[in-house]
Amino acid sequence: MERWSRGDSVLHRRHAAVKILVALALLISIGTLTSHSALAGALYLALLVASASAARLPVFGILLGAAAVLPFAICFAAVSVLAGEPAQAVLLIVRTWLSAQVAILLIATTPMPRLIAGLEALHAPEFLLQVMQFLYRYLTVLAEEAGTMLQAGSARAGTLRTLRFREAAAMAGVLFARSYARAQAIHQAMIARGFEGRLPAIRQAPFRLADAGFGAGAVAVVIAVRAVFRWA
Amino acid sequence: MHIPDGFLSVPVWCAMDGAALPSVAYLARRVQRESSGHKVPLMGVMGAFVFAAQMINFPVGNGTSGHLVGGALLSFTLGPAPASIVMTAILITQALVFQDGGLLALGANVFNMAIAGVLAGYLPYALLRGRGAGVFLGGVLSVMVSAVFALGELILSGVPMPAMALTISLALFGASAVCEGAITLAVTKAMKRIEPGFMRRPEDIGGKRALVVALASVALAAGGVFVTSAWPDGIQKLVLHSGSSSGRTAWLTAPMADYKLRWLATPWMTKTAAGLTGILLVYVLCVAIGRALSVSRPAAGREGA
Amino acid sequence: MGMMVEVRDLVFTYEDGTQALKGIDFELEEGCTVALMGANGSGKTTFIHHLNGILRGTGSVIVDGLPVTPPNLREIRKRVGVVFQDSDNQLFMPTVLEDVAFGPLAAGKSVAEATERARAALDRAGILHQADKAPWHLSAGEKKRAALAGILATEPKLLVLDEPTTFLDPPGRRALGDLLADLPQSKILVTHDHLFARRLTEDAAFFEEGTIAARGPIAEIVQRFGW
After folding, report:
1. Architecture label for domain B10-293
2. One domain for residues A136 and A188
């Protein structure tokens, strides 16, 4: 997914804030699909597939990735069917699958730092976004540490269940201690370079005419599709 | 427990986004005011820690294993407000990077886990002054309360949930809640052996008052779910009656009539409205508890000086 | 040539009671380089944390003519650049360029100027082509150079490097040695790798249990203490 987001295409180049808004518009209209607008759902699927290829992403990969949410949806759909409402079941599956695709499209065309910048442009709390920046920065570092610990642990694994529980807890404890120490070291490094409490502002990409055009156009299409099928 | 997109109905996710957004903004401003940017690296790294810690499997018998959810642990070590922000950062990252949970549903997931769950997890810890039982109960409640809210939102959205399914769901959540309690307790014990100072000393709260409010809100949350699922017609009758006697239902239908959107006055809407009022009430109580618990302390930062 | 660093009778005790420094006297002339050697836990890292005010003990610490006291910290931190052992803890921004620009920005430079300085520093360190990468995409050697660039961007007068060759393979070590040899600043190298140190200086101070047991040519110290 990270690899996909580093690609280049018409969609990749659009401003993150616009993409987020378009995604939200799509999600809202997909989320309000009822049985009468089943055809609209099919049209959205076509739209999403088209967008995926425009973004030079593997279409099948996206459909499959979105299918990860299906087991959850199928459970509830089954309950619906048993309760005598098969139409609701189908709707649920269609809505969740399509929504997942929208999310993947957004993420696969926008690397995390740009997503964060997009959220900042949409006035999300800067403090929260800065925490997210640090979280994302150290995700792989800590995951690697945990991975190394797990490998070492499994090399010495005990056979008793209770022993393994305590071992897991000890591992988590050590991981916590190391993470805490790392956070202190990072803070020291920041202070050593003159940090006094204000982090640098999140870098913003320039907002271009193409972005405005894309945003307006996409939202217009979304509304048009629903409007057409409401009165068809 | 992350709700994907496509499940929640418009009023529900709107209401939850409406509840979550200002709360997160308020909490973010509050933590920033108390610590400037100095807490950011710690909070970010702790968020990454939760992700990494979830790679560790805790065997819980019968070949199944659980992992640390982390909301309670974060609140014991960072304090409830920073823990909420970190959990929010975690949830957004999970939605954006791992497609775990929906984007429209983020408000609901953030409310359930980062706000209600964190607060519910912190309460027993604070009330029991950091003893082991408080840690365990904190873990249990953080998961249980999040689950109850999630189920409630699903039910209110019209996702079919017969009594049997509800019971099974609650039982499964109950089991994972107990797991979280046990795991959190075990991990905090391991941490204490390394360095006793990791856990915050819980602030003194006005014991009985907070306890009553806390119990009441949890009871309301649990009760609310059962009531709306078991007696939807009853709720509808209740609201329609009070509405017709004081003209409140008229308020619902009158403007709508002009736009010929009578579907808004259907039983579905009144049931949803009733449920949402319940959630709103619990939310207000959560805020009240939060205020009662919080003592605005200036950060004792070792700013390297 | 003035004194870059003058330390007199520095004593420091940690919160848990461990006395990490038991009276350090130390001097470094401007433009000179010294290697700090000694066993783990002998106080080397604790000592260098006093040079930019991260830790404060009793005694006198004067860097570039300024006593290391709270009113001077902001200025001192511009003049002293510390490269920590774990580059991951030092490259804390989302991209290399943003990280290297952190120092100048914190010093009050405008975004444009900070970016320019950052690019110049990255170029100096030979990794300008990695400017927009996330830190985890860099090799250990590149990360170390990025960390060094981050320090150079603030144009310090004293460079302090804590175990710089950890995580580096022989080519990486050589490249770092070449880069450092070219820099005119005064340097303090905390290192176990005396061969690396000898590329840059003959002067070493040997730490032992919180004191400096000896100061002199590296070869002598290595022989005397069996390093």
Report:
1. Orthogonal Bundle (1.10)
2. yes
